Amino acid sequence: MLGSDPSGAGQAEAIAARAAQLRETNPAGTAPAVSVLGEQLELSTLDSVAGPPGAAVVALGRSGISDATVQVDLDDTPVFGVFGPDRSGRTTTLTTLVSGLVTSVPDLETYLLAPRRSALTGRSGWTSAAAGPDACAALAAELADLVRERVATPDRRWLVVIDDGDELGDGPAATALATLVRRGRDAGAIVLCAVQTHVAHRSFGGWITDLRKAKHGLLLRPEIEVDGDLFALRLPQKASRRFPVGRGYLITRSDVDYVQVALPS
Core-most of 50, 237, 244, 248, by most CB within 10 Å? Predict the structure, then answer.
């Protein structure tokens, strides 16, 4: 299936558009090479993303469908969830997105909540970073207060990164994180969160459910038959597709792309 419309007319339109693109980008009598999506990609090897200066639009990786650089627009939808099992590349994905944001958005405040040990805690430059459940609950409460204060000044951009968010699905931090996910956009916040897939499936209410409702995220090493339910859609049934570390389906509303996440240089 090409594009997001599975109807006959939708497929005909998508195929015609793809054919026009190929004719434009390839000289007459030639065909583009069929490339293999690499398991190791560096951010420095990707094309620059399209967006005005200062926009929260960042490169994520490469598409296995179009072979083009895949970008994530966090101006359009400033909430992004990374779902996957252990050792699927959740923290690496967060790191890639953070690297792009601090480069593209000037004077960006950055906050980290890491209830478990995370490679992100070793990254320098955080405005504030919390490690462990108690510290995360305290920082989450401060950030919820920040949302309420900054609703009047939403042009001031700030970033909140939550690794192993499944550890904060309930308990002292949950109410504050619900405020952050639901109202952060109104206060200029960008929220990136990594969650275990099986925990997200069991969430019926609360901030993790709100994270899913944004329909903006990455499904790493997905279970094709069931994981599309997290975004209320069906994933493509492609027997030839593999899912090494850092590979999955990028969801942007109803659009689905097959992506390999690039590693920060």
Answer: 248
